[in-house]
Structures are given as C-alpha cells and as structure tokens.
C-alpha cells in the first residue's frame, strides 16, 4: 500500500500539467547579506527545512547576498531570525503576486513573436520553425536531443558563409529566467532582419548557434504550475523533483556552490550529466566546439557579466586580463544604451562559487577561449519576474554590448 501511495505522489510531483497554478499573494522578498559563519549555517539549515520559504540563491558562502521569498505565515519567524542573527536585510518586493500579475500584459494568442510578452515553449518552437522556413539559405534548425518529459531539444544555426568564427548562445537553462530566451530569440531576429551595418557585420561574418530553451520541461512548468521553478523535471526520489542543470555538467562537478540535497534548488544531480537535457547539450556542443570562439550563457538576474571559473579554489584562466578587458568594454556599451550598470569579473569573486556550470564546462573541457555568463536585468526590484515591457530594452542593450564585445575580441585576436 505504501508503495502505491509513493508512486501516486511521485506521479503528481512529476506531472505538473494539471496542477493548479501556485499563487504568492502577500509573499515578501527580502535581500539578505551573509556575513558570518553562524548566519550561513542557520540559513543553510533553513533552506533544507523551508516550511514555505523559497531561496532564490542558495547560501553557499559568507560575504554573499541572496534573496528569500517569505510567506505571510513566516513574517514573525523571519523577523525573529534576522534579529537573533543580526542579519542585514532589505525588502525587495512587498507583494510577490502583484509583481507576477504585472509581469505580462493581457493578450490574445499571436501567430508569431513580437517581444511584448513572454511565450510558451510551443510558441517559441513554432517561431523557430517559422524563421528557419522563411530563411532556408542562412538558417538551419536541428533537434539535438529529447527532454525527460519528451520535448524536443532544439538548436538553430545562422551562417552566411563557410569558415566564419563561431558564437554559441544558450538560454533558459534555469526555468524561471524567462528574459533569457526572450532576449535570445530577439537577437536572432535582429541578426536576420536588421539593416544596421554593425548588426549585419555580425550576422554575415560570424556563425551563430542558438539554444533558445535549454530546459523546456522546466519552462513549461513555470507557465502552468509554479513561476518560481528553477530546475529540470526528472524525479530524484519520492519527494524531490528536478536537478539544477547549471550544476550538472561534468567539469569540477560538486566542487562548491552546488548541493547534494535532492530538494535543493541547486541540487547537482545524483551524478554529473544525470539529466538528459545536459547530456544532450554537451554532446551537441562537442560537435561544434572546434568552430566556437565565443560562448555566452544567458541568465537573470542581477546585471552581471561573469567570467570563469566558478568552482571552489579555481585558478583564473591564463587569459583573464583579456577576459576582463573585454568585459569592461561590453559593460560600458550596455550602460551607454539605457544607463543599465553591469558588474563584471570572475564569477566566484563578484557573485558566488558555482560548479558544474555550462561556461566552466565549455571552457574547461573544450578550451573555448571566451566564455561568459550574462545575468540580465534587474537588481532585485522584480527579480526573476522582469516585466515584459523590459524585454526589448534589455535585448537592445545586450546587442550593443555584444557588438562591442566582438569588436574588442577581434582587436585582441580571438576572432
């Protein structure tokens, strides 16, 4: 009998398709600064026993900031903890559900994307198929694998001529980071349609490889069930579903900034490459790695431009001075567009330690010379739930940053 109940529970956890959409009325989001080992250990214990709390970043070290979603029934408890630990906190969001409600405009279904809203996996895939069909001489689509729930894993290549240096972009590996795939699709559309000479130069003289949705099962789940979901959707045990795919790559796996606890948002998996999505991306990248000069991983939020390596105790890459020089130029071009300020530098130094990430894997295993993580808007006012009216401005400043990035990389001899 117990086994049957466990199977039913597992099926309910894994499906999500018919589940009711979670609401977060009157939930607050606080930014918390971790300064002492006692604070760190207490927050780590709280993450393992959340009882309604949700951590947007895992507490992995001192001298880091993270955001915690606090449900109404925990307001008094949270105040007690912050007082007892002398935690420095800042209220980021007063009512999280209102931010979610304001994230997307009311709309009717559209035949194509117009980047005034966030779209479903099916809508994005339909657009990808459409733009390839409309531009068959320069675009080619491929299915490089299948997700745990049976969705296609799709990639698009843009190439005007043979022999171009390659640029690889992957987005939406974390399910709730909708702005990442929205920006990636907008960029491809610009590369295909723009009359701006600088953009045309990028399109014609570089080969572009896009994975718009690296985690389609997770993205679908954020649309139907839980806007805060981060991981994949493969069950780990009877109670915990999903692995953080950006901790699951087989390079310095579980070497800092990742969790071995299956219900944690930063759970690295039972093994490296335990997820079909990460294994398939790695296999796909291996087929093109020799052509890739630049690799970008699109994430949100915080407005960071991060360089490898992220794992614990990692040395800086031998070309770190060049990495930081390119980052400086890129951040300046982003800021010049709309005033958006990016912090840049080594990911473990300016943000926090991570291991098993895509960038570390591509640089560490395949020797990709220029690997960067973009953490898009904003700095906490809306967090992962960036309003749709910021999609195009975010994409525009990102494109200007990439134009400057590639120009500097060319000056330094990387492309």
Describe the structure.
- It is a single chain.
- This protein has about 425 residues and is α/β, with parallel strands linked by helices.
- It folds into two domains: about 80 residues, Alpha-Beta Plaits; about 290 residues, Zn peptidases (Aminopeptidase).
- It contains 13 helices and twelve strands.
- The strands form two sheets. An eight-stranded mixed β-sheet has the order 5-6-8-7-9-12-10-11, with helices on both faces. Strands 2-3-1-4 form a four-stranded antiparallel β-sheet.
The backbone outline, from C-alpha atoms, is: globular
Mean pLDDT over all positions: 94
How helix-rich are the residues, as a percent range? 25-40%
Order of helices and strands, N to C? Answer: HEHEEHEHHEEEHHEHHEEHEHHEH
Query: Any idea of the CATH class of the largest domain?
Result: Alpha Beta
Q: Might you state the CATH topology name of the largest domain? A: Aminopeptidase
* Uncertain ranges: 1-18
Order of strands across the main sheet: 5-6-8-7-9-12-10-11
Compute the number of structural domains: 2
CATH architecture of the largest domain: 3-Layer(aba) Sandwich
How many alpha or pi helices? 13
Please name the fourth-level CATH homologous superfamily of the largest domain.
Zn peptidases
Roughly how many Å is the radius of gyration? Answer: 21 Å
Number of strands: 12
From the N-terminal CA to the C-terminal CA, the straight-line distance is 62 Å
Biggest β-sheet strands, sense, barrel: 8 strands, mixed
Percent of sequence in beta strands: 15-25%
* Structural class by SSE content: alpha/beta
């Amino acid at each position: 009998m117990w086994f049957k109940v466990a199977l039913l529970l597992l099926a309910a956890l894994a499906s999500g398709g018919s589940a009711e959409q979670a609401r977060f009325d009157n939930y607050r989001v606080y930014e918390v600064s971790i300064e002492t080992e006692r604070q760190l250990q207490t927050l780590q214990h709280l993450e393992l026993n959340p009882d309604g709390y949700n951590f947007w970043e895992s507490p992995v070290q001192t001298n880091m900031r993270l955001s915690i979603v606090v449900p109404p029934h925990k307001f008094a408890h949270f105040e007690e903890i912050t007082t007892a630990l002398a935690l420095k906190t800042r209220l980021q969001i007063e009512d999280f559900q209102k931010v979610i409600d304001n994230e997307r405009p009311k709309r009717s279904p559209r035949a194509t994307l117009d980047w005034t809203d966030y779209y479903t996996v099916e809508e994005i895939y339909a657009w990808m198929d459409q733009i390839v069909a409309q531009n068959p001489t320069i675009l080619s689509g491929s299915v490089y694998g299948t997700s745990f729930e049976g969705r296609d894993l799709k990639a698009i290549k843009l190439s005007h001529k043979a022999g171009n240096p390659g640029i690889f972009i992957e987005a939406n590996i974390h399910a709730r980071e909708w702005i990442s795939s929205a920006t990636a699709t907008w960029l491809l559309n610009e590369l295909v349609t723009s009359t701006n000479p600088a953009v045309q130069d990028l399109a014609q003289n570089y080969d572009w490889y896009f994975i718009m949705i690296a985690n389609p099962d997770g993205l679908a789940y954020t649309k139907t069930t839980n806007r805060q979901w981060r991981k994949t959707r493969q069950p780990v045990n009877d109670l915990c579903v999903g692995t953080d795919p950006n901790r699951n790559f087989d390079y310095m796996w579980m070497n800092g900034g990742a969790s071995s606890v299956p219900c944690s948002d930063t759970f690295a998996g039972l093994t490296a490459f335990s997820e079909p999505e990460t294994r398939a991306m790695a296999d796909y990248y291996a087929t093109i790695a020799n052509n890739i000069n630049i690799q970008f991983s699109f994430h949100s939020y915080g407005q960071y431009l991060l360089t490898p390596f992220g794992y614990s105790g990692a040395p800086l890459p031998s070309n770190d001075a060049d990495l930081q020089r390119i980052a400086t130029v890129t951040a300046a071009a982003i800021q010049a567009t709309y005033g958006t300020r990016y912090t840049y530098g080594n990911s473990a130094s300016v943000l926090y330690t991570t291991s098993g990430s895509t960038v570390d894997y591509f640089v560490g295993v395949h020797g990709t010379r220029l690997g960067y993580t973009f953490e898009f808007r904003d700095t906490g006012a809306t967090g992962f739930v960036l309003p749709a009216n910021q999609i195009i401005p975010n994409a525009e400043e990102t494109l200007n940053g990439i134009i400057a990035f590639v120009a500097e990389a060319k000056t330094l001899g990387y492309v």
